[in-house]
């Protein structure tokens, strides 16, 4: 496994991953959130076997349906989606950078189990470019 890589999500990319039935980890963040920024700097050093899709909560008009669907009330928030796009894990209230980093690592471990069950080759985080 390589360090996780995240990318700015476009609706097309998000939809394509769902269409391909690939697990993905959503990272809801805000540009004004200092905790989000600190976590974002750490992500490349943390292994994650599935793509990490950055969703900027500041773009409410674009991402409001997903935020409502996955019940994202605060940022930062991680939501792990299975191959069918169902949320199988979600972080709770952010209690600081270390807490959220540990939560990301827990989601990554669960993602490894999801990705390992794939009959086709799983997407590697190394396929994502920042």
Secondary structure layout:
Blueprint: E1 6-8, H1 11-19, E2 24-29, H2 34-42, E3 52-56, H3 60-69, E4 77-81, E5 87-90, H4 97-116
Parallel strand pairs: 1-3, 2-3
Antiparallel strand pairs: 2-4, 4-5
Strand pairing plus helix content: what structural class?
alpha/beta
Low-confidence stretches: 1-7, 118-130
Q: Could you give the count of β-strands?
A: 5
Which strand order spans the largest sheet, edge to edge or round the barrel? Answer: 1-3-2-4-5
| β-strand amount | 15-25%
Q: What does this protein structure show overall?
A:
With 130 residues, the chain is of the alpha/beta class. It is 37% helix and 18% strand. The protein has four helices and five strands. Strands 1-3-2-4-5 form a five-stranded mixed β-sheet, with helices on both faces. β2 (24-29), α2 (34-42) and β3 form a beta-alpha-beta unit. It is globular, with a radius of gyration of 13 Å. The two termini are 17 Å apart. Residues 1-7 and 118-130 have low confidence and may be disordered.
Brief descriptors of the model:
4 helices; alpha/beta; 18% strand; 130 residues; disordered C terminus; disordered N terminus; 5 strands; single chain; globular; 5-stranded mixed β-sheet
């Amino acid at each position: 496994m390589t360090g996780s890589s995240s990318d700015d999500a476009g609706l097309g990319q998000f939809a394509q991953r769902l269409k391909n039935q690939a697990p993905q980890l959503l990272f809801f963040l805000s540009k004004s959130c200092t905790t989000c920024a600190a976590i974002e700097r750490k992500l490349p050093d943390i292994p994650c076997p599935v793509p990490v899709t950055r969703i900027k909560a500041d773009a409410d008009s674009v991402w409001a349906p997903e935020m409502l669907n996955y019940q994202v009330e605060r940022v930062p928030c991680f939501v792990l989606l299975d191959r069918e796009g169902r949320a199988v894990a979600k972080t709770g209230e952010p209690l600081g950078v270390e807490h959220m980093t540990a939560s990301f690592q827990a989601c990554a471990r669960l993602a490894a189990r999801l990705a390992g069950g794939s009959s086709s080759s799983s997407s590697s985080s190394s396929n994502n470019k920042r």
